[in-house]
Design brief:
2 helices, 95 residues, six-stranded mixed beta sheet, 21% helix
């Protein structure tokens, strides 16, 4: 997926609560352990991304989020890829 860290999400982040879910992902509020900053983590099980088309969509979403710098768009901070899931770490928007 490019510029990803392979680790367990729980090594670096503490899960606070579930913010929402959809067909392919669950979004959690998380806190980065090293500095206590709050983020959103969109986590997708890899088993749902087995189809080549879904992998292309996720890679495209990640690339697009990295390229966009606009006040009305979420800022992506990192991607955590584990054996079982891919989590996109973004800024947390309240409200």
């Amino acid at each position: 997926m490019g510029n990803t860290s392979s680790t367990h999400l729980s090594d670096r982040f503490s899960r606070v609560r579930e913010l929402g879910s959809g067909s392919f992902a669950v979004v959690y509020e998380v806190i980065r352990k090293e500095d206590k900053k709050r983020f959103a983590a969109k986590c997708m099980p890899k088993k749902l991304l087995e189809a080549q088309e879904m992998q292309k969509r996720v890679k495209g979403e990640i690339q697009l989020m990295r390229e966009i710098d606009h006040p009305n768009c979420l800022k992506i901070f990192e991607v955590v890829e584990t054996r079982k899931k891919i989590c996109i770490i973004t800024e947390l928007i309240e409200g």
